[in-house]
Amino acid sequence: MKILGISTASHSIGVAIIENNGLVCELNVNDNEVQSEDIVSMIDLMEKKFGKNIDDLQAVAVTNGPGSYGGLRGGLAAAKSFAHVKKIQIVGISTLEAIAFNMINCGRTIVSILHACRDETNIAMFGARNGSLVRLTRDFVIKDDKLQRLKKKIGDKVCICDTYPYARNVAFLGVKHLEEGKTDNFLNMAPNYSHKPNIREYGNKN
């Protein structure tokens, strides 16, 4: 299977292609906000840099939350466009699952975390078994002070993972989800925000 991975939930955004469970190419940049056209430009650059093409993609996987408001919207817009135009499958991947994938070989429980806002952190727990992740909790939000107390309590009993949800991780997890029959409909996919976007109408001072 040849699949495109798109990760736009954090400050590091990226695109990657894997084929037959091997990484073909990947491109990452740091950006605070991302638009769908930025992702398309990155894919074009990746194709030129590595001499690869996406004409024969079979699926696209994309981070669908939690994460930044603009980043998730831009990534999903690009992924949904690819799925529609190329008539391929699409699958949404939890940002926290993609982060946990960085420590898939730790052999212990993984606590995956991503800073949110309002002194809070997104968190989820996974088990690392036989080279795959097993979800132990849903994605949830915890106050930063409670997270610090939790870290002190659990000590080195678990693996704390707070790195990036790399695009290659999203692609690898996408293959796993597709093999399990977990696909999405591009028509009704929407970001899974941990907080409602803080948007006010112009002139509203409240």
Describe the fold and architecture.
The chain is α/β, with parallel strands linked by helices and 206 residues long. It has a domain at 2-103 and 163-179: Nucleotidyltransferase, domain 5. The chain is 31% helix and 30% strand. It is built from five helices and ten strands. The protein has helices at 36-50, 69-86, 95-100, 144-154, 167-179, and strands at 2-7, 12-19, 22-30, 59-63, 89-93, 109-115, 120-129, 132-135, 140-143, 159-161. The strands form two sheets. The protein has a five-stranded mixed sheet, with helices on both faces. Strands 6, 7, 8, 9 and 10 form a five-stranded mixed sheet that branches. A hairpin with a 2-residue loop joins strand 7 (120-129) and strand 8 (132-135). Helix 1 (36-50) crosses helix 2. The termini are far apart.
Give a short account of the largest sheet. Answer: 5 strands, mixed
The total of beta strands comes to 10
Helix content: 25-40%
| CATH architectural category of the domain at 2-103 and 163-179 | 2-Layer Sandwich
What radius of gyration results from the CA coordinates? Answer: 17 Å
Q: For this structure, what is the CATH class of the domain at 2-103 and 163-179?
A: Alpha Beta
Low-pLDDT runs of 5+ residues are 200-206
The arrangement of helices and strands along the chain is EEEHEHEHEEEEHEH
Summed over residues and divided by their number, the pLDDT gives a mean of 89
Number of helical segments? 5
- The structure class reads alpha/beta
Instruction: Find the CATH topology of the domain at 2-103 and 163-179.
Output: Nucleotidyltransferase, domain 5
Strand order of the largest sheet: 3-2-1-4-5
- Shape annotation: globular
Q: What is the terminal-to-terminal distance?
A: 51 Å
Question: What is the assigned CATH homologous superfamily of the domain at 2-103 and 163-179?
Answer: ATPase, nucleotide binding domain
